[in-house]
Amino acid sequence: xxxCSYFTTIxxxxxxxxxSYLVYIVYLLISDRxxxxxxxxxxxxxxxxxxxxxxxxxxxxIYKMGPEERRIxxxxxxxxxxxxxxxxxxxxxxxxxxxxxxxxxxxxCNPVTDFxxxxxxxxxxxxxxxxxxxxxxxxxxxxxxxxxxxxxxxxLGFAKRLYKPATESAVIVKVLQDLGAVPFCKxxxxxxxxxxxxxxxxxxxxxxxxxxxxxxxxSSSGTASLIAAGGAHFGTGSDAGGSLRxxxxxxxxxxxxxxxxxxxxxGAATPIEVLIGASPTLGIMASTPVILTFVMEKMLxxxxxxxxxxxxxPIPWNTPILESKKKLRIGYFTSLPFxxxxxxxxDMVLKAKSSLETLGHTLVPYEMPDLxxxxxxxxxAMMAGCLKQLQKSWEFEPIADSVKPLLFASYMPSWVMxxxxxxxxxxxxPSLHSKRMAASFDQGIKSVxxxxxxxxxxxxxxxxxxTEWKKLKLDCLISNVHHVPAPPxxxxxxxxxxxxxxxNLLAFPAGVIPMGIESGKKIDxxxxxxxxxxxxxxxxxxxxxxxxxxxxxxxxxxxxEMTLRIMNELWLANPNPIx
Length: 579
What we know:
The chain is an alpha+beta fold. It contains 21 helices and 13 strands. The strands form 3 sheets. Strands 6-8-7-12-13-11-9-10 form an 8-stranded mixed sheet, with helices on both faces. A 3-stranded mixed sheet has the order 1-3-2, with helices on both faces. Strand 2 (140-144), helix 8 (171-178) and strand 3 (182-187) form a beta-alpha-beta unit. Helix 4 (67-73) packs across helix 6, helix 11 packs antiparallel against helix 21 (560-573) and helix 14 (372-394) crosses helix 15 (404-411). It starts with 5 loop residues before the first helix and ends in a 6-residue tail after the last helix. The model is unreliable at 1-20 (pLDDT under 50).
């Protein structure tokens, strides 16, 4: 998550002569003792690459985008659902059209890891029923590769997880199928999930669905890319530090990180057993908040998940909150000092503010506390145990570019971390000065006492945020999603998770809605303060002109429906803002 900014950091650090790359070399030398296992995994990868190429070639010979397929893929959500409900469309033909479109998109953006072999058979079963199965009868959806589907692998980008098919599907998949939906493909993600990139050694790199010269965001990269490119109306993702929201922001779609516990995690693969500090959650991504709301409502309204997981929170869907006409008090902020917004991102929050005021809501400025210490402390607390757990997953594996910083960090001695921090903090090398990067290289968690001390500091800052929220009597809050829109692929991926991670730490629901595009008119006006990270980000965003910009809507825990209400009101006031 926050460590994806380390990739460019470590490159620069190597130039200074303090070679963190030596850590990686030592790792390779030590692990070479068991080169037999590494060679075995290389053969496994080669086998998978060949099988995937052959399968995609075979499918392309069967599923082609003809006039009927293009007509189906051009249907609006309402027309698609109505056609399937009235049986003027068959589930089989709709699934076939989606497979054909996804194959076409895969040649440009590579969002799909594998197509689900049983999808066609499931669609045919629906067509043979006397009555429609449910409100999502025949609607195809994609799902992030981490979710189990019976008979398929959930690799997370690790070769050692290949050819170990799941014996049953994840709860969220079963629930959607019970509602009549048809899972037709799995989508790409960065190796480990802990990155805003979209690459892994098994399935390659995913590109932005609206502009394949831009980054897709992560870790729900493939789902966001496929939806943005018109390959599906909705799909699944997950979020432990922005992984539903940043890809939605980068690709110009909608998503919601729900309150943790509202979706079952049963059947969702993970590279680690425990993530300290933040609660991961599954979620839905969709082309519009209207679709997102419809799908989430149908999944939650009758407690469908309890049939498969008795530990999921039995919180029913709250229609009165969603449909309420009560005027709300909504806080807003347009930037944070830790990593200020560059270009038009702040203006999009003001655009949302104006729309909500026009609808009769009261908008009040919201001042966040100083987050410099929070970002350093929380990052180190979360990664303290995470990195050691990931080392086991990385053993003998080819490493994806987007997560190499995590690998380096996991083996980096504390004295090296301190020297990096000092280099960024001081002005001995002016070109490397960055108080933001210095904050991200905090002192680290070395003991249980350190962890408890860090947790106390985090809770103190979080309490300030909640106290301000209560003082202003807010119902919800709007803000930026990120400091910039999607950067070009060849630009440094300087990711400031400060705008999204805070709501994972607080377990607040947070959604994203597209609000406009980057004009590029204000980029040169941005004051980079001579800060290394800000200078790199400013230079990178110059290639983002025309990229979508989203706005984040944050609600109180278990008030997901209110968050969705505001997202829908903004969408109706600003329909198709990125066209």
